[in-house]
Amino acid sequence: xxxxxxxxxxxxxxxHDVTKIVPGExxxxxxxxxxxxxxxxxxxxxDIGKEHIYVWEQKEGELHENDAAIRIKDLVLGEGCYIxxxxxEGKIDFFAxxxxxxxVDKEELLKLNMLGEIIVSTMHNNTPVKVGEKIGATRVIPxxxxxxxxxxxxxxxxxxxxxxxxxxxxxxxLITTGNEVYKGRIKDAFLPVxxxxxxxxxxxxxxxxxxPDDKEMISSNIIKAIEEDKVDMVICTGGMSxxxxxxxxxxxxxxxxxxVTYGAPVLPGAMFLLAYYKDxxxxxxxxxxxxxxxxxxxxxxxxxxxEEKLSYKDIAAYGNGGMCLNCGVCSFPHCxxxx
Length: 339
Fold this sequence. Notes:
Its EC number is 2.10.1.1. The chain has helices at 41-47, 65-76, 106-113, 147-156, 179-182, 190-199, 215-227, 248-253, 288-291, 296-305, 312-316; strands at residues 2-5, 18-22, 26-31, 52-55, 62-64, 81-83, 91-96, 100-104, 118-122, 128-129, 134-140, 144-146, 162-166, 171-177, 204-211, 233-237, 258-262, 273-277, 280-285.
């Protein structure tokens, strides 16, 4: 780049964006890369402390920050994402093209950021996102970067680092157990909670079945929901503790499906159960879901709806960040819970 005094800059073409900052009022672009300096621009540039401008004279092996950012974007961004319309100051923002679960390859992301001079920043892996939500960004630190740095990144990263797995509307049967509910002594409180949480993702509870504490009835109704009602998932509520008369976990186990876990390092939600019957997920939801705004169910549900088959390791990994802080104003999923 060639440095030129502002007073001598009329007719010159800016090689970079010029930013104006007025504390508490404004931060944004004053002049765009490629702008031809006019006489009336000189006072504006002096007002923001610019006494020189830089004209970039491109040399072989060098890249402007915006061109380098485009190549990084192509390297990083996968399915279900789109970018900001405008690229400026070497920065490109990433957005979700569809409602889904954000996937971030954390190891590849670390490798890329360890190179220096280029950065990629994202939301947390496995965060549920809405259409149009900002999920990350890339930025090139120097105005002009050696192309070798970008080539090194392209050789290093073999898989897209960021993608969105689409959440698809699902139909569920809710099986609520408990003699006290079955006999009408108390009113069930699970249905409105589960209904609202599924509807947030476009799903629905197609039927609720209320059963006594009878593991044979629980097993047979789970199988009926999957094989006859053809639902996408079964949610079991009530009777999830270790008390002898709480038989819901036994009823789920007797379906002869695959038990992934009974117990999770998440609070609220430690007594959570996850199983699969012929690839259909069965979720045993503990009583905390009735009164706690966020529980293990909120962490697992979007991943299930994005058709991810969860493993014991996936559940165990929630231990780091698995304690909900019960904030006065809940900002989930944009908080530490489950991250």
